[in-house]
Design a protein that fits this description.
Distance between the termini: 33 Å
Keywords: Glycosyltransferase, NAD, Transferase
Protein name: Poly [ADP-ribose] polymerase
Pfam families: PARP
EC number: 2.4.2.-
Number of strands: 9
InterPro entries: Poly(ADP-ribose)pol_cat_dom, RCD1/SRO1-5
Strand content: 15-25%
Structural class: alpha+beta
């Protein structure tokens, strides 16, 4: 799979992851739930990116700039990278590569692969990191464009889907997404698959889309989580902003 380029990292929120505790004992960490989350990331070999590393700083800059008027209120607590070093991680990466190539062949050389953001609760993010996407639920904010996984080119448009945990932390995945040929889906639609073999995914709008929709049958072949961003944004508690 292609590596995340410098320019693409910076622009990923315009065109279109700690407080991950290092403690390993209950004496050091008062919350066993958070402890389990930290161990889960280690077990799946998610690599913590340190500040001043190029990838960390580029993703942080892109994330913050994508928050618009909330940028000054955002604190990026940590960023993790999917190392793809476990057996399941390697299998998912290889699957994504195969489907990317298949889509290129289908679409005349352009698989239309983009970066997009997915926000949810810490528990759902944990399940996705460990096992992949397993269920389709309606977005926790905004309109529903069909029955599929909703992802967002700009993180601000999906940030309310990132449910705050007991420590005031929210979590979003930065994913690589195979879009192929897209079709416009109306808000409130119950569509759950392409309307014809000519289409592969859905969007809310053609120019520019604010939402990508990946159908359930493709959710673990056409979405590859690359990074996990953990952040705080107190203003989101009252939703005191306008997108």
């Amino acid at each position: 799979m292609e590596q995340l380029g410098v320019h693409e990292q910076v622009s990923m929120t315009t065109e279109n992851q700690e407080m991950l505790l290092s403690c390993d004992s209950e004496a050091e960490c008062p919350s066993s739930t958070l402890n389990n989350y930290s161990r889960l990331l280690k077990r799946n070999e998610m690599i913590k990116l340190e500040e001043r590393e190029k990838e960390h700083d580029l993703i942080k800059a892109g994330f913050v700039s994508g928050m618009g008027q909330l940028a000054k209120e955002v604190e990026v607590v940590g960023i993790h990278k999917n190392s793809c070093s476990t057996i399941s991680g390697q299998a998912r990466l290889e699957s994504f590569r195969i489907y990317s190539e298949a889509m290129r062949n289908k679409c005349g050389g352009n698989a239309n692969i983009k970066y997009a953001w997915f926000g949810s609760s810490r528990d759902e993010i944990s399940n996705i990191i460990s096992h992949g996407f397993s269920a389709i639920t309606e977005p926790k904010s905004g309109d529903c464009f069909g029955i599929g996984v909703h992802l967002y080119p700009v993180n601000l448009h999906g940030v309310l889907s990132a449910v705050e945990d007991e420590k005031g932390l929210r979590h979003m995945l930065l994913c690589r997404v195979i879009l192929g040929n897209t079709e416009v889906i109306e808000a409130g639609s119950k569509q759950f698959q392409p309307t014809s073999p000519n289409f592969d995914s859905g969007v809310d709008n053609c120019l520019p889309p604010k939402t990508y929709v990946i159908w359930a049958s493709y959710m673990n072949s056409h979405i590859f989580p690359n990074f996990l961003v953990t952040f705080k944004c107190p203003l989101l508690l009252g939703k005191q902003f306008i997108i």
